[in-house]
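Section: Multi-chain targets

For targets with more than one molecule, the full set of components is provided together so that the structure can be written out for the assembly as a whole rather than chain by chain. Components appear in the order listed by the source. The example entry contains four components.
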Amino acid sequence: MADGQSKERLPEEKVFKDPVHKYIYVQDQLIWDLINTREFQRLRRIRQLGTSYLTFHGAEHSRFSHSLGVYEITRKIISQFERSGYAGWPKEEKLVALCASLLHDIGHGPFSHSIEDVFDAHHESWTCRILLEDTEINQVLRQFDPSYPERVAAVICKTYHEPIVVSLVSSQMDADRMDYLLRDAYFTGVNYGTFDLERILRVLRPHQGRIVVKESGMHAVEDYLMSRYQMYWQVYFHPVTRSSEIILRQIFRRAKELHGGGYTFKWMMSPLEKLISGTIDIRDYLALDEALVQTAFSAWANEADAVLSDLCHRFLDRRLYKYITMDQPDEKLWQEIRNQFSAIGLHPEYHLEIDFPYDMPYHVYRPGSTKRADKEEKPPILLLSGEDHLSEISRRSDIVRSITGIHQGKYHLYYPEEPLLESAHRLPANIRELFALM
Amino acid sequence: MADGQSKERLPEEKVFKDPVHKYIYVQDQLIWDLINTREFQRLRRIRQLGTSYLTFHGAEHSRFSHSLGVYEITRKIISQFERSGYAGWPKEEKLVALCASLLHDIGHGPFSHSIEDVFDAHHESWTCRILLEDTEINQVLRQFDPSYPERVAAVICKTYHEPIVVSLVSSQMDADRMDYLLRDAYFTGVNYGTFDLERILRVLRPHQGRIVVKESGMHAVEDYLMSRYQMYWQVYFHPVTRSSEIILRQIFRRAKELHGGGYTFKWMMSPLEKLISGTIDIRDYLALDEALVQTAFSAWANEADAVLSDLCHRFLDRRLYKYITMDQPDEKLWQEIRNQFSAIGLHPEYHLEIDFPYDMPYHVYRPGSTKRADKEEKPPILLLSGEDHLSEISRRSDIVRSITGIHQGKYHLYYPEEPLLESAHRLPANIRELFALM
Amino acid sequence: MADGQSKERLPEEKVFKDPVHKYIYVQDQLIWDLINTREFQRLRRIRQLGTSYLTFHGAEHSRFSHSLGVYEITRKIISQFERSGYAGWPKEEKLVALCASLLHDIGHGPFSHSIEDVFDAHHESWTCRILLEDTEINQVLRQFDPSYPERVAAVICKTYHEPIVVSLVSSQMDADRMDYLLRDAYFTGVNYGTFDLERILRVLRPHQGRIVVKESGMHAVEDYLMSRYQMYWQVYFHPVTRSSEIILRQIFRRAKELHGGGYTFKWMMSPLEKLISGTIDIRDYLALDEALVQTAFSAWANEADAVLSDLCHRFLDRRLYKYITMDQPDEKLWQEIRNQFSAIGLHPEYHLEIDFPYDMPYHVYRPGSTKRADKEEKPPILLLSGEDHLSEISRRSDIVRSITGIHQGKYHLYYPEEPLLESAHRLPANIRELFALM
Amino acid sequence: MADGQSKERLPEEKVFKDPVHKYIYVQDQLIWDLINTREFQRLRRIRQLGTSYLTFHGAEHSRFSHSLGVYEITRKIISQFERSGYAGWPKEEKLVALCASLLHDIGHGPFSHSIEDVFDAHHESWTCRILLEDTEINQVLRQFDPSYPERVAAVICKTYHEPIVVSLVSSQMDADRMDYLLRDAYFTGVNYGTFDLERILRVLRPHQGRIVVKESGMHAVEDYLMSRYQMYWQVYFHPVTRSSEIILRQIFRRAKELHGGGYTFKWMMSPLEKLISGTIDIRDYLALDEALVQTAFSAWANEADAVLSDLCHRFLDRRLYKYITMDQPDEKLWQEIRNQFSAIGLHPEYHLEIDFPYDMPYHVYRPGSTKRADKEEKPPILLLSGEDHLSEISRRSDIVRSITGIHQGKYHLYYPEEPLLESAHRLPANIRELFALM
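Its structure, encoded as tokens over all components, is:
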């Protein structure tokens, strides 16, 4: 049985050199063994930021390095709790928490958000299956303690009996977010994502099943939330990145459509075919990585289907869709554009995409309810004054209130530039003007 | 005709956010067009440091970002020369120099060093072919000025009539090395590769067809060379990286051997088959990228050939060879090991590799001759005192002399651990001791 | 006559190593000569952040280094304007602008804010006098161009005929503020003050006599203003710094009071005596520096007057006043405290100070009027969309609006702890409770 | 009795924000009380790098911040030893070691090296007196444990019975040096002094009464020693800094000479007079700080003695001596220069100083003897291979050997430029040529 002290502590601490945290320290045999499983190593072949490297060329870092980073921050938080002897932290949960933080992204596939959209997969459910089914990770966890696969899965699925462990891995200011802000800022090279991690770690307190923030740390949290705000608008919602995600999604949609229509691909590989046909199992899922997806695109660039071939070329050679911006929705205009696009031989379903960042799976900060009715709702950030007075941060901070639920989003209409330029003379004047075609 | 001033200057300067140089500035339409060719975009799919990401997980950056970095440093050097009005710099060569710095690595394929070793390809000759044959890059250069493809190729091949342009792109302290030291240090996270780039740029002087260093910059150059020394020993020659390169090379060797012997691969793709069979042309070469190689390894992990399958699994799951270290060569002992390995059923040609860093295509610093008899020989670093007294730096600096031609290298014997452990009882005592098997 | 091109350009560019900007570049003989005047060198003996080093021990940097930094940012902005060939920038004003940026703080004395409060001096008027009266600076400027002393003074006093030059040196996002945020963040070690200077420089545009910001730079400006907000609350308004400033001011007040009452100081120096008696001239003003003030405090710690001696000991040995915090003003309570303090032998006028940060000479951001009725009012930050649509930033940005005119300030009551502890038993219960005395 | 666990641990950890170590953590009441003594606070008024701020304007940091930094590194080393449970570290010595590291520089006065040269004071002996005589520090230590003043003094004087504690505070790679290299690099802004502190802390091992380095850390130590080498030549031995130190020393020499000759100073303060007359006691010594010295110089700039007045003006206004460089000593020539200087009315004893960096109290690295015959000799750096094989690093590392005992030093002749220029026509041709006077 595991009691928070590893049954086997490594004879000598291992370290990974990490650009964000300087070093990542591994002290437990269990953690070391998990890192060395094939499922965890596979994360090296999946980029943390999907297609963002097409906008920020430095953003080539993998989910492998992010997962180690989340683990390291969790380790530091717990170590701070233990050193300070805080009553609210259940010491025996340490290893479960470390495993959950290390493995919380294990279910991610290549370009997850796009694939999930098109094929209705969910990385969260794959995470649970990888923990619970026949994998090296499951084997390592089970050999350590038969209850570990379920316990770790419960933490990640937010059903664990100790809510504070869940809170560590999943809340508005969890180890996941703290690592990705710092890491994405480092690799993109923007300097918006930097906040004072060391100070934040010092003001966290375990309190009645939650991680809360000592009142004196309010400004540090404001700074963290502002970093998040800036990263969302400068990096995550960048319109060029959105354009590349749209291309990607359309490649998958087209492949699915063709496959459904009985099209014979000149090139195909089994895991991909199963993904497309909706029959993928865990073994094939684990064989999916970005290398396979990019190889498919290289091959499909030579397919007979013109739409698929064009989209694949666009992705590989970074000939992305251009965009125009609109402040307000205008369904009638949009329908007219679709009609005109059809009239000049374009496929509106592939050649026009209307995008609104607000629909994306991010929100800068929502105070949320503390009841977590919505499974997507992350618990809010609470400030602790005195012994036990809690207040939600947006009630205390003007800054936080100002970014809470902010929508600065505009509508972007994405489209391929060249065919429009070629057929500009056949379009009515209002459409030409909108797309700045003379 | 191009005269150093771009025929077309971009109406507004473009920038790339870059973690190493903060921003990369593009002012010329020609440079912008080159970056947007498919051959240049392909560099996004080739890692700068090959397999080093298996040792330093941050080292996932691509040759695309390095190429931009080399361009940016070259741009800064030239801009400093122009601002200071130095007589020795031929202003009309600016654009040729910028093109050469941007494109100097365009011929690299995936995991170049290993592939070059096994298939006797050379990225330098591919670079020339990409510049001179039917590619988008050739087209962009030719449209700018019909002489540009040849001129840029001549700079990269070191046959250009203005030696100072060659010196900028290829010397002991060229833009290439300055960028990769800084960049590799940034992405691995080690802090050895940092030197004062801004100061070095300020002490460079064009002088009689060479770039030399003002005497007062000697300590800055020492610091640069020490960074190089540290990076070589800490990063580039890291034994774990060497182990992964060995696995990679053996995969290619095995595939070539199998192919030569008429083996039918369950999975193959055309560019790879042509590489293996020695019939690759430029179109297929440009289709080779790391995605394709990794996809091949994933597929070959399921091949019938046990050696190939094992090697591919090892690479993908990072189950690398272990190593032992020896100070001196000992051919007799090595032969005995090979014999014993055979005796227990291993394939010495795949299961034992003896490695000596000195053989690798790097050297920390060699004063070299100034005559460049050897095409690999890079011109040495010269200090300029007064108006025109030049001296080679290792004659002036004790530090540089101490690292010149240094060999600290040891012999490493790489081998798979598990089969040895299993058959340990069948090995003689001296071999068991050597490999620390009980 | 000066025409923006220095009459004398330095034969070789000079540099200062600077931790914030890496290097500070001096290209003009005039700038070099100004830096070497005794009045400018004197800024080395005046700390940029006054007493903040008692809170943040790294904050020991001088106004000398800040002044060089303001010069360097101004130089970079102008150089960007010139390189881009923007129409709105009057090239012939370059040197005047550089002089004004270098010299804008030349009138500061030691611990300016406190001394200005007590002695009704103003560093701005001293700046003008140093430029216009008999000083080395005046001589250097006059020799360069007889009109320069007046022109430079006019820029600093905001009466110059070219408003854009004024705007560069004094606005809501001027070179002064940009340097001090970065510099103060660097030396204190907090990482709140860092924003992307290089990006901000790229989005500035001269436009109709003002420096405005290209619309696409809005997020960068938000980040800059958030840095300012954080620096104000974390550093500039830090209650411990306020406490040390209060002590300092009280020392001066006490010395003035004693002097006015005919007290004979055991130790006095002429420039200080003239300051206290209100008869200081420029020669004595320039002899005032922090060394002299601290030496005075060391000497006065041995004066017979108990109040003065105690205050000086407190300052030197960092035995600062404690404070309690109140959300709302309460004049009646405060009066009661004063009475009770008197009753136990304290001097309320020295032993109690009620402080409210809002009164301080800072405000995070005020949109201001564009008419500059109020001389203290700094012109607001304007965003430029398209060719000439301007909008004040707080109308466009929710973030900026949320920090505009924010008062989070609380009232702090500062007092010496020890005498209160000693006499706690003689105080009524409500006062004891307020000061947490049992 | 103290047992390594503080009798009083602070109820809540205190932190100082520090630019170099991010935060400095104080956990013991004793350390907190020592920091708050007036003798320790006095270190805020003494610059760490003396006159270097006249060369590197950022170098304005105090011995206060350095002392906290040495404490913090020591705390981290011990904490690493304790966490790893190394046998060789005597746990009960923790607090003594922390006190010694915090207080090792407590005896420094203003511009120590110059004052020590002229007045034959030694900061080491003042350190002992401050620990052992009637001071607040002595009182705090004694109240904690009556043996502490002597124990802490013994560590600093290297006579302590546990040599490993001495080794922590004073060796070739002690906490003192590690902090000052990082700190001086940070504040000057040069990037030579940065090495991987975290890695070095991880490879230190207590071993038979010494701190040694695990063999695998050799490259990290090389990097540390190279930083030291670069800092010495780029910062500590900078000829402009030397020039300012020479002026400073000559001011003191002149004042001493005048005082000895019965000269009546218009301005004098008691601690300074006692210093000059050799009768200074501890109370006056503690009243000496840089403020007082600079105030004296300001006052003495108006003294009747022309030599003293000129030197003081030079120091305050940074009108330093120029220098010429010679590779070899040449006593005969130097004597001729002195004669010629006299002939044109200069005072060779004040107007010519021949300086050789090798004489300065630094050496990059000397392997030293392990016997420490010479009290100044610092124990060398030893590498630990296996369980207990030790080797001195310069025997293993070519790099270290190359910088061991290196002298690149040249002779510098410092002199005031103006009087030489004025009388150039009266000097013989060889002297004119030497000083480049046409």
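Chain C is about 50% helix and 10% strand.
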